[in-house]
């Protein structure tokens, strides 16, 4: 049932699901997964689903994005942006090393003071988790603070409509978050569906489907991208 510009999905013993996907394809399994999620006891009022929805697998906690405008303008950037991209890659550990060695390129060997500070604010909560799940002590946790994850995580340098320079980040919870998620639910067998095909949708359709929810303040175009 469509209400205003969202579709309302309902099921027995489930909170309502409001899904803003008009004009955007959504696979049936993703719809079923959201209805199942809406049955969880902590859902308040209704479950809101955005147009970039797709069926999920594996686990992450706290994945999110941020864009920050700098004081720079496009004219302040060099003609060749390779040095900037290289500097970001050197400054921020990213990705992971397969078959862990003594030097994991995705972790700090010696976390900087800023990472130590942020970790100190998380330690009490992490201890409560490790008291209950001691296996989490074996994960990359402190060493992954302020590092860049794998997959579709990225650091970007962007320009807006006035050629002002922005930094954009998309990152997730890294190793310890995935480990926490695996304690709850994570299938990795051959029957698990590949989430990638429906994870990438037409951006104009996605924006149009949620036009009543968000206001486009600045369109950003990427000029440098460092992937995890």
From TrEMBL:
Q: Give the binding site residues for Mn(2+) 1.
A: 153
This protein's record includes keyword GTP-binding? yes
- Name the domain of life this protein comes from: Bacteria
Q: Which GO terms describe its biological process?
A: DNA repair; RNA processing; RNA repair
Q: Which reaction does it catalyse?
A: a 3'-end 3'-phospho-ribonucleotide-RNA + a 5'-end dephospho-ribonucleoside-RNA + GTP = a ribonucleotidyl-ribonucleotide-RNA + GMP + diphosphate
Residue numbers binding Mn(2+) 2: 170
Q: What is this protein called?
A: 3'-phosphate/5'-hydroxy nucleic acid ligase
């Amino acid at each position: 049932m469509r209400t205003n510009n969202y579709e309302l999905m309902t099921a027995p013993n489930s909170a309502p699901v409001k899904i803003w996907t008009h004009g955007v394809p959504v696979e049936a399994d993703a719809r079923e997964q959201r209805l199942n999620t809406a049955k969880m006891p902590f859902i308040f009022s209704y479950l809101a689903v955005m147009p970039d929805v797709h069926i999920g697998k594996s686990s992450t906690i706290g994945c999110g994005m941020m864009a920050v405008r700098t004081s720079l303008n496009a004219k302040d950037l060099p003609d060749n942006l390779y040095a900037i991209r290289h500097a970001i890659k050197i400054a921020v550990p990213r990705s992971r090393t397969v078959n862990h060695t003594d030097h994991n390129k995705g972790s700090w060997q010696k976390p900087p003071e800023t990472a130590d500070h942020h970790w100190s604010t998380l330690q009490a909560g992490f201890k409560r988790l490790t008291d209950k799940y001691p296996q989490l002590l074996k994960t990359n946790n402190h060493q992954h603070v302020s590092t860049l994850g794998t997959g579709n995580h990225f650091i970007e340098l962007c320009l807006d409509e006035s050629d002002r320079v922005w930094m954009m980040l998309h990152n997730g919870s890294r190793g310890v978050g995935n480990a926490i998620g695996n304690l709850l639910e994570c299938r990795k067998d051959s029957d698990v569906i590949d989430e990638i095909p429906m994870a990438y949708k037409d951006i104009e359709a996605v924006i149009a489907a949620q036009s009543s929810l968000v206001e486009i303040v600045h369109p950003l175009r990427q000029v440098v991208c460092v992937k995890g």
